[in-house]
Specification:
This protein is an alpha/beta fold and about 350 residues long. It is built from 5 helices and 13 strands. The strands form 4 sheets. A 4-stranded mixed β-sheet has the order 2-3-6-13, with no helix packed on it. A 4-stranded mixed β-sheet has the order 11-10-7-12.
């Protein structure tokens, strides 16, 4: 993954989103969307159980009739996430739209429409539901499409080329590094840890199957930076660059051991560091696992981005946020890098976005 890889930038075309959003109603089955704030600013709390509305899982991302069923990864799932281990691992939170500077750089202004972003990185427990349903959980053509970006949905040509053939092969793919093997073939103690060893294709397939999608890079960056607050880290007040192990799992120190002692125990249960929650309540936007986003990697054009995404095919996809193995230099909200979308790494996971 991006442990030593600097963000080399290349020129490419960019796609601009057009369109509108769906309607959001309902609250059901432990899958909650609510307004709240993390990182010590704003009102409310990112508990995952407050009043609000459930993110849509039906066509177009909108629910109807006063309630939404739990998405597939949440059915029957125990509430074991968050700092107390008592939150729904499937909680999602609304991110208010607005304007900001991508990567905190004045050259790259952007405007982002409101969307929903899962509070937690996808856990082993949630991903197990996808594995249990596999290969029936492979997305249909067009699934996981961003409502404002043409051509952003699942390409059924990817099924045979980039997805495992069957459940046994998928389980093997989730064991990409035996020293940092989080996945277990039967439920054990890791169900509330973030799943790792995900290629971009598996990350996309899971989110699409679960009624969501991958966030665009600008959406992810906007949520991590707290929008116009332009936070250095997701938890930062605008001018504060404080970072230590009480905010995030990084530098192989999640278990309190020296950085030179990197173990599986340095990967923390999702939401374990509430001081590190972002403006809208998302946990672990820095550290724990790198998170895949929709975009192909390219240089930012020096022009206004209005709900933009880079859909011009290249060699690598963007991945953001830093991981448990990386030092602090990889965790700022301005840090962007990339990887081969077919790669499965011990520090690569995902967080799903959803449409309002």
């Amino acid at each position: 993954m991006a442990k030593g890889k600097l963000a080399a930038w290349i020129g490419a075309a960019w796609a601009v989103m057009t369109g509108g959003c769906g309607t959001l109603v309902g609250l059901d089955d432990g899958y909650y969307l609510h307004e709240g704030a993390g990182g010590g600013t704003g009102t409310g709390a990112a508990s995952g159980t407050g009043p609000g509305a459930s993110s849509g899982t039906g066509p177009g991302g909108a629910c109807s009739g006063g309630g939404c069923p739990a998405p597939p990864s949440c059915v029957g799932l125990e509430e074991t996430c968050g700092p107390r281990g008592d939150e729904s691992c499937c909680a999602t939170l609304e991110v208010d739209g607005g304007s900001f500077k991508r990567d905190n750089d004045e050259r790259y202004p952007a405007t982002v429409s409101g969307f929903a972003l899962d509070r937690f990185e996808v856990t082993v427990g949630r991903f197990r539901k996808f594995v249990e349903a596999y290969p029936g959980s492979k997305p249909k053509a067009g699934a996981g499409k961003h409502p404002l970006i043409e051509g952003s949905g699942w390409n059924d040509g990817w099924d045979n080329s980039w997805l495992p053939a069957n459940a046994a092969a998928l389980k093997d793919a989730l064991k990409c590094d035996l020293a940092f093997r989080i996945w277990t073939d039967v439920p054990e103690a890791h169900e509330h840890l973030p799943v790792n060893c995900l290629s971009w294709y598996l990350a996309f397939a899971f989110c699409a199957w679960d009624g969501g999608r991958l966030p665009t890079e600008v959406e992810w960056n906007y949520a991590a930076a707290g929008g116009e607050q332009q936070r250095e880290y997701p938890w930062s007040e605008p001018a504060d660059a404080t970072i230590d192990e009480s905010y995030a799992a990084y530098d192989c120190a999640g278990d309190g051991s020296p950085a030179s002692d990197c173990e599986l125990t340095d990967v923390l249960p999702v939401g374990s560091r509430p001081k590190g929650d972002g403006r809208w309540g998302q946990a672990d936007l820095a550290g724990n696992m790198w998170e895949w986003v929709l975009d192909w990697h390219a240089d930012y054009p020096e022009e206004e981005c209005e709900d933009c995404a880079n859909m011009a095919a290249a060699s690598d996809r963007v991945i953001r946020g830093g991981a448990f193995v990386n030092d602090a230099s990889y965790l700022p909200t301005s840090y962007r890098t990339y990887d081969d979308p077919a790669d499965s790494e011990n520090d690569a996971g995902v967080r799903c976005a959803r449409d309002l």
